Structure formats: structure tokens, C-alpha cells
Amino acid sequence: MNKRKITVAVTGLNNIDSPGPGIPVIRALKECSSFEVRIIGLSYESLEPGLYMHDLVDKSYAIPLPSAGSQALFNRIQYIHSVEKLDLIIPNFDAELHNFILLSPTLKQQLNIATFLPSREVFDSRHKSELPEFGEKYEIHVPKSTMIFSTKDIQKIEKEYEYPMVIKGKFYDASVAYNQEQAISYFHKISAKWGLPIIIQEYVSGTEVNVTAIGDGLGKCIGAVAMRKLYITDKGKAWAGITLDDPELVVLSQKVVQNSKWRGGCELEFIKNKEGKYYLLEMNPRFPAWVYLAVGSGQNHPEALVKMALGETIAPFEDYEKGKMFIRYSYDLIVNMDQFEKISTFGEL
Amino acid sequence: MNINKNIAISESGFLFNPSTGDSFSTNPIGKEIITLIKEEQTLQQIVNQIHLKYAVDQDTFEKDLADFLYILKINHILKEDE
Q1: In which domain, by residue range, is B43 found?
Q2: Which residue among A54, A127, A293, A335 is the one 20 to 30 A from B5 at the CA level?
Q3: Chain A 203-222, residues with CB within 8 Å of chain B CB atoms
Q4: Is there a contact between B20 and A244 if contact means CB atoms under 8 Å apart?
Q5: Contact status, residue A53 vs residue A23, Cβ threshold 8 Å
Q6: Mean pLDDT score of chain B, rounded to an integer?
Q7: How many domains does the structure of chain B reveal?
């Protein structure tokens, strides 16, 4: 079968100890049955390992940080497109999605570049700070949470929350605080990195389970694969995991994707408490870094996303292989200085 | 008592619970006990069979069996009859 040739730009090439989803997404696309994919890597830093993985990434370009705004991003994409003729962009960082969602119609109309992202409204509704309303709207249990802007607020919320409580950054990072001193310390640590507000969340004890899912934006869940982390790094990231046979969790995830009319990939993080009740801790608005496990167990979510982005209608995946594991590893790439020089100086590699 | 339906048990005595992702290894005697439970043998029948087959005094084995069944139960491998 002749595969259709397409060019896809992908961000999230930071395949580090807290990995971005870019490289797993690229692996999924390189192995897909429908397309022959040329990959254009988009990077924010010159040391993102994906830049130097030439067997996976055909060409790379530096792009401006999200704080530079959507116009700067558009200008850069316009230039990259003039060289590479992009068919599609798959952004993989939470912090950049706002700009890409904003640019999505312009990219399509002016440059004919497809994206497959949720609407701004749906994207905002699952923000950590909005999660209680999200849970209420879609009838999902969500731990109680409150946004705070100063350490003085910690004393105030102690009437409502018991220790331990979870201190979370608006984009990333979460720590469990067992007393006020720890809560204040985590507040400073996380806000220094990710800014304000800080989210205080009720601590729910139980087993963490995660789901990688994809929605068509019209109320259909195209795929959902449940996983439990078997080995967790000090940053809370999965270093090994296993697919679960948990129909209740999959149905619950499908309900979230369907009811919210989620468009694109996402990760749902749940806690299953002792009574077997699921609490949604977070809904991450992009594929997780472990999305390749879904591919390995029979659901190629990135390929499904590309198909939908290019206008195809696809049938939902019906099953996946249970008990399939992933084990992550680190690997030292040996790189000549001229490559680092190229990406650092010219923003291209 | 019985072994939870969805538990996968391999020839080597490796147990996997696909709904939780938990896995365990048991020795040949453990696997033999699990097989007897799956065959719906009573506790007394299991004690008798193992006692006859291996050089173990009954009191010691009964105590070890109780410990083993407790471990199976807390790990959601064994369920009591309702």
C-alpha cells in the first residue's frame, strides 16, 4: 500500500527525566500504517535531546518561548512552513497550547496547516483551578481545591483543609505537605518556577491510575488506554508502567472525553481510593509522555489524531492489550559541537 | 474461598492481576496450593494433601497456610465465599 507522504511538526522534544511527549508521538507516527511522515522538530532549548535524534527527527527549528506571544510564534511558523511545507502541527506542552489554540484558525486559513486542538473554552474548563466545576459539570468526583496567591492564604484555608494537603503549580509540579511549614516551603518553591496562583488540593489516598485518551471534538472518545505506574521517579514521573484491565476506569474516561467534547489527545490522572471510587486529579491537555504504551498495546493515538486533523472520520478503538508494560531508559547521545552550534546560532538543525 | 477470576497464573508461579497491575511470584508449593484452591478443595483437604506429599508436620503447615492465605487475601488474589 502506498502511504501518503505528510510533514508533521512536533514540539516536546525534551526527552529528559521529566520527559515531554514529543519523541513518543514521533515514534508512533514513524510506525503508523497510513502515512509516511517527515518530522519537523520544534524546540525551545538547544539541549532538548530530540533535536539530535536524527533517526526520528528529520529537521529541527527553534521557536520562540510561549511568553513571546502568538504573533512571534506565527511569524516563526510562517518561515518554517515556507521551507518545509507543513501539513500539521502537534504541540505537546501545556504552556504553549494557549498560543496554538489562538493561532489554529489562522494557521489553517492562511497557511493550510492543520492542528487538532480543543476549543479555548473546553481547554480552560479543565484547568487545575477550574477542576471542581469541571467535575460537577461532568459528574466526576474531583478532590476539593482552592486557588491561593500568597502564603497568608495557607493559614486561612487550614479551616477547610486538613493536612496532608497537595500544593500544586498551575502547569506542573505537585507536593504533599504534612504541615504548615512544608506548605509554605512548597508554595515558594513551586510559585518561583511556575508563577501564581498555587492550587491547594484535598489529599485523597489510594492508587494512582492514568489514562491516555483521544477525542474527536464532537463528543466521541476515539481511544482510551488505562495504565498504572510501576516505577515512579523522584519527580513523580512514570519510569515503568502497565496497561490495566479496568473497564470502569475506561468508561469513566470516555465519559469525560465525550461530555467535554474534547478534541485531541489528553491524559486523565485519577486516584482510586480504598472503596474503589475514582477521583479525577488532573486532565492534561495533550498526550502523556507514556503515550507510546498505547501504541504498543494496540491503539495508535497519534496516528488517529493525524487522520482526524487531516479530515478523515475514524472509528473508535474497541480494545487494547492488557498487561503490556513500558520500561523507560536513558541513553547518552554523542553529539558534535557543530550541531549544537547550528541550533544555538541559527535556530535550525 | 476461591482465586479471583481475572488473576492470571503462569506455569512458573507468576501471578498477575490485570485490573490493578500488581504481579507476584510464588514458589512451587505456593503454586500447588493455589491450584488446589482453584480445584475447589477445602482447607482441610489442602492440609491433608500437602501433609501426605511433603515432610512437614501438620501444625507447622496449618500455620504457614494461614499466613499464605492471608497474603493472598490482602493482595486481592483470594476471595472468601459470599
Answers
A1: 2-79
A2: A293
A3: 207
A4: yes
A5: yes
A6: 91
A7: 1
